[in-house]
Amino acid sequence: MLLEQGGWKLLKLNRRTYAGTVSALALLSWGAMAHAAQQAEAPAAEGDATVSEVVVTGSRIASRGFTQPTPTTTVTAEDLEKASQPNVFQAIVQMPALQGSTGKTVFVNSTSSGMQGLSSFSLRGLGPIRTLTLLDGQRVTPANINGVSDVSQFPQLLIKQVDVVTGGASASYGSDAIGGVVNFVTDKTFEGFKARLEGGESKYRDNDTFVAQAAFGDAFMDDRLRVIGSVEYSREAGVLAGGFGEQQAGGRDWYETPAIQVRPLASTTDGRPQYRVIKGAQQIQYAQYGLITNGPLQGIAFGAGGAPYQFQYGSGGAPNGAGGVTGCFAPFCVGGDLSGGIGASPTLAARLKRKVAYGRVSYKWGDDDELYLTTNFAQVNSLNQPNVGAERTGLTIQCENPFVPAAIRSACVSNNITSFQMGTSNGAFGPIDVNVKREQERFVLGATGSREVFGTSWSYDAYYAYGVNRISIDVDNITLTPRYNAAIDAIAGPNGTVICRDPIARAAGCVPLNIIGNVAQDPAALAYVMPKNGPRQRSKQNESVAAFNVTGEPFQSWAGLVAIAAGLEWREEKYRTIGDPYGDGATADNGYTDDYKADPLLRLAGNNWYAGNYHGGHGSYHVTEGYLEANVPVLQSETLGEANINGAVRQTKYSTSGNVTTWKLGGVWKTPVQGLRLRAVTSRDIRAPNLGELFAPPVVTNATVLYRGTAVNVLQEIVGNSNLRPEIARNTEVGVVLAEPAWLPGFSFSADYFDIKVDGAINSLAAQDLVDLCVAGNQEICGAMLLTSTQPNTNFVRVQAFNVATMRTKGVDLEAIYRKNLEDWGLPGTLSIRALATHVMSFKTTSGVLGTIPVESAGVNLSNTPDWKATFSQTWALDRLSLTLYQRWISDGVYNNEYIECQTNCPVSTVQRRTIDNNHMEGATYVDLGGTYDVNDNVTAYFKVDNLFDEDPVAAPTTNVSPGVNPYLYDTIGRMYRAGVRLRF
To answer: With a threshold of 0.85, does the pTM exceed it?
Structure first.
């Protein structure tokens, strides 16, 4: 089923998802958006009294002149303004290091993932669960049970800078920092007033946006009392559901129903490829208003008023009466009648509405000591529509059903049958609505300052943070499967009426539903099968953190002051969630009522909805940890340069999995060559299993798998595993930085090589992978599924996580920038040119399941790991005016590195090495244009055009019905216009 693809699975490691989700690392991105790490790390000039220390997110050390070995990119508030995006997430996520991040264009065809509308970062494609996102160096209450924060809930107008640490940082910050850290730093001394208003719209007259933000700050009582606050509202209308066939939203015309047609493995001894990339993929198991799919009447479809007609199969195919079509391979033909397809219907960009209020009150009770209280209240609403209608296959319709046209009833008699099999898109149902609301309340009470101990000044930071996120998911316009099945099985009643066949269903209020043809729907029947209160889930996430950190320079080595940071932290995470009784079943706390119990058709175990069967659950864990970090200067010489060694160790104890140790060791050498620095760091990092993996409530979603060449509808059961252990990663980076060499002023260059290996990765294979392994003979996996039942809603595949996988990714990041005052050439203004590129050399995943092989996903454009990804920018600035031209480039790739491309004389296809006729997937180049104009000292007007040439996304075919596009890499909205004004007083 279309609406479940790309849901929960992308949070797990499997061949079709995380196997191909590594992203390349880069120091900067989005044109002239970021400042190089070396700028953030540069020591203050000698005698500069305004700078006492430099705080770098990649380390806990706060020390003047400290240079850390882990690459860190700093994006300033000015850089964010140039990006001109309605949500700061959309500005930061353009960085090449951030691939696999979620957002409003991802998970839009999902009902049950819990990730819809969630803005979360993924560094190096390792997934949001392996990237730690912080606010002022502090953890933020997760927005779902997977421990992922929603950046849309952060205050945005008061952001001073965003530090992106593109390397392992668990020794400094704890779990989840395998890919790195993204730290949002607020302006704690802001004074005055500023505001922003922005509006926008796409070329297709949709995705209209409105942004209104205001921030204020002032100091009182001789600057001892400081009050800062902000309020924000934004609305992005999104691009909601398209239609059936190839009718896309807003009149877009790039969807061509791409798919991969699959022949049975046993048929590949003829030298032809097993997989064939096609356009115009026709689903042969259903039509928009009904298609008979088996028996002597196979191939008859139903149209206006229920009138039967001969369905036009693609590929010149003809039904064989046994469910197959000559010239086609289930489930696709090529061409023919495409009107019942649902691939064009999912939302391309979710509707997103943000309301955020933030406040900070601080009081200096000494020259260097401050007490503070911050509060953050945020509400983020999203809406996505996974698909129109609700495709059903394998329905049994009795010939005596009064809704069956007379001609078909007569044909039943002629062919001596009493029923037939039918599939339908349920074209009269309209789109399914998934409404998600996330409400956060967060409070932080803390103290910062410094004290002199034994002649050394020590800075301290202590705080207690408490936050709660309440998540509500409400799904509308969706059916209860038992009632649907009963309602479509109708018979003639007394006095010319039509009634449900099952007397038990009739007694419980069953109203017959006519799904045969394009006919007017009975409101009472729709109300029966599609109750007003659809699937719902109510979750509450709680996080409590108490932390104490100190940093100072207690003694001096032969090369300089030794800096030390140390700290303790205690944290508790817990959640509780309940579903509605139809999905959750007979539990005491989900509103289970006598009305529900009065309907004997409903399963007491739940799972009654077509999709969105949310289940209740709860769980908690706590963690205690302490760390020590030191920076030791080891060289200071006019002839040999300067060097320092940085190391850290952290001991952590989890209530669920016991003790674990993380560490890092690195160094930086500032060579005697002007501007040339070398850096290297290696670390042991972890990701502890989150609440979702440990204590996930059972989640049942509909899915379709191919079993021995036949498409089978299954229930995909996802459950937690409380025996999971932390993932262990080894992260190594080696880099060179050349900043402002004497021979080329204004030029900077950096290159960094990275190598990350994750052992014991928590892995849950996709349902199709499990089925393939079962077919290949893995009996253990076969025991976790049932695929041969003929009873509706009984076939299933159980998905559970284990510490069985291994991942390893290697790559190189390159950056070059050149700044030039054009007056030197007799021209006005200044010019800045920047080029960034990331090459993913390898991303190999071993699932850990017997019978599988390592999967190489570098260069797989169906995922988010292109071989090369680059951003370029050219900025011209003159007095009050600036213009910037941006280019975003993705290299060509493949659908799968394990595929063997061939047209003839192909080897026999296997589960591990399938043959395909075309394994090439094109890359893309997008051009953006932006500009600003300072009307006066207080007012700035700006504009931005994204995807200036309205480049269509590249087709992304899969072996199932899908939207046929990869939003992780490709633009799905099209040309987007925005304009706004900023005020400063």
So the answer is: yes
